[in-house]
Amino acid sequence: MSPCRGGDLHHHRKEFADGQVLLLTNVSLDEPTAVEVALDGKYVVRMDALDGKTYQIPYTSGDGKVAVKTTIEPAGSVLLRVSDEPLAAEKAAVLSGGMPLKEMRPLSIGRVKDNVLLIDFVDLVSGDKSIGICTTTRPASRFT
């Protein structure tokens, strides 16, 4: 793996009998990271952990190695599967990156109902014995 630019890249690689899987994660919350990785194999696909599908990703291949260049958005990740055998994959609408969504109407955020749970901690001490007690009270019932 070549040095990345920007972000804070972490990775995990697992080898299997029929290939390997590489997880690349950008743990930076502020900036994307550009990464280039070369792995043993002939074919590579991007796996989507949310929908369970595999998608095509641009790569180069030669001399028994594949090379992938990609950009990982802040707090984003890329899961790659590498194999010596062709892998079925769909064409992805967006391979990496994206664009901010435009506001369709004024945004209003509000609480639908009271959802705070008050927690009280009490330590009872009697002689040489000590008992910790935790009680919870719903706000509406506490003040009525």
Brief characterization of the structure:
The protein is mainly β and 144 residues long. It has one helix at residues 139-142; strands at residues 9-16, 19-26, 33-40, 43-47, 54-56, 60-62, 65-72, 77-83, 118-126, 129-137.
Strand pairing plus helix content: what structural class? mainly beta
**Number of DSSP helices?**
1
Please write the string of helix (H) and strand (E) elements: EEEEEEEEEEH
Low-confidence stretches: 140-144
Shape: elongated
- State the total count of DSSP E strands: 10
Strand content: over 45%
Give the strand order of the largest sheet, numbering strands 1, 2, ... along the chain.
1-2-8-4-5
Q: Taking Cα atoms only, what radius of gyration do you get, to the nearest Å?
A: 25 Å
Q: Measure the end-to-end span.
A: 63 Å
Instruction: Look at the structure and give the mean pLDDT.
Output: 81
Work out the helicity level: under 10%
Largest sheet: 5 strands, antiparallel
Task: Give structural notes.
By secondary structure, this protein is mostly beta strands. The chain contains 1 helix and 10 strands, in the order ββββββββββα. It has one helix at residues 139-142; strands at 9-16, 19-26, 33-40, 43-47, 54-56, 60-62, 65-72, 77-83, 118-126, 129-137. The protein has a 5-stranded antiparallel β-sheet, with no helix packed on it. It has a 3-stranded antiparallel β-sheet with strand order 3-7-6, with no helix packed on it. A two-stranded antiparallel ribbon has the order 9-10. The longest helix is centred in the last third of the chain and has 4 residues, at 139-142. Residues 140-144 have low confidence and may be disordered.
